[in-house]
Amino acid sequence: PVEIDPRFQKAVNALGDRWKDKHFAEFITKMGKLRLPLSQCYDVQIADLTCKRLNALRFSSKPFMITCSFNWPHDPNVVPSPYYEMFDPDEIKLPANRHVREERFEKNWSREIIRDLGERGMREFLRIYYGMIKLIDDQVGRVLESLEQTGRMDDTVIVFTTDHGDMMGGHGMVWKSTNSFYEEVTRVPLMIRYPKKFRPQVSDIATDSTDLMPTLLELAGKSIPPSVQGQNLVPFLTGQKNTSQARQFTFSERVRANPQGKRKVLPDTKG
User: Fold this and answer.
1) 12 & 145 share domain
2) Which of 77, 78, 198, 219 stands the most exposed, by the fewest C-beta atoms within 10 Å?
3) Cβ neighbours of residue 26 under 8 Å, at least 6 residues apart?
4) Each residue of 7-44: pLDDT tens digit?
């Protein structure tokens, strides 16, 4: 159950009616306060399970690897109390480039949302998005605290990253699904903590998700297969290699799910 702000309920309903045959219609018609106990939220339960697993490792000396994969912040934009109330929409600073709207994206559905819901809708979107971020921040804190209690905090490689960002009103759009390649979608966090190997620093080299495998293999003392596409980030973070030797660019292509077939579809490819 989702409680929608009555100030733009009419606009949300209109979008829902227009997109009723689209699979993403509920993503916008369910944007608001999630009426669900915090303990029943998926990401809180994921943190619960991760903490439970870490606590079980307190009495083990064996190497371990845990993937803790959260869903938020992500559409549909809903968040429960107390996170929904944490950010006043009237006090939220809107993106400076929200009015820089390239015409080629004018019919993009992520642009239509902003156009129909207006500034009030954008503020509500950001209020919920920030609430989701704070919720995840708290869950990450719980996981790190559980890891610290094992006594193996400094002996563990910690990676925090994600697969994509969100336009968050930038260029008059929201969500990830645009035909664009803006920084709002592509410039995402990649934080690695391993005090045995790395000193605190900030790197500006171009990376992508394929770099994680060879980097973790290197840190685990394992050989990296020559066929691996990604770059090993360790030499750049330890100073063994100059950042000018790193990949200078990355790329992206749109792939459409094709669950009935063996191949993916590149919708923008001619032929």
Assistant:
1) yes
2) 198
3) 16, 76
4) 888 888 888 888 888 777 777 778 899 999 999 999 99
